[in-house]
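#struct-queue
[09:14] JT: dropping the first one here, sequence first, then the structure tokens:
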Amino acid sequence: MGIIMTIIVGGIIGALARFVMPGEQRMGWIMTILLGIGGSVVAGFIGKGLGWYQPGQGAGWIASVLGAVLLLFVVGKLKK
């Protein structure tokens, strides 16, 4: 059940990040899910580095969306 919830939450976070980020991001639903999961990983990594999260604690929704937006921004710059 954990993997299914990860996919669902990743899809929601990825969709929110694509909605918040200006411009058009051409990606399918699988890439949107991977974007959301990656955003959560990035947010957790940065949050643990700054001391916001304890080991084993996951990132919050807002931080995950911000992490996904950061990923979209970096990928957009690398494509240009």
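[09:21] JT: and here's the second one, same format:
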Amino acid sequence: MSEPASIRVRLPDQLQRLARLDREVMVPVTGDVTQRSVLSALERAYPALRGTIRDHAGQRRPKVRIFACNQDVSHDSPDEALPAAIARGEEPLFILGAISGG
């Protein structure tokens, strides 16, 4: 069995405050590095984040955006492999709250 990848995740201010975390956290991911596997690892490591990024059915919340290597991957399949730079820990996966209003 291979060693878990250490994935860097950057969180928006509101989630940092909610879970009392730094701006960037590291989470171990075993197997394929996908949005689903990273978010599952993040929720396991920091239970206060459960239900904030994804709903309780596992679907990304509409006002949350996910960026990998400066690309919005929010609407990609949650099981699609993230870029190698994310999997190697060279780049962070960014989670952002969408801005809305008028």
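[09:30] RK: nice, looked through the second one.
[09:31] RK: The chain has a mean pLDDT of 93.
[09:31] JT: good to know. The beta strands are 5-10, 24-29, 64-68, 71-72, 93-97.
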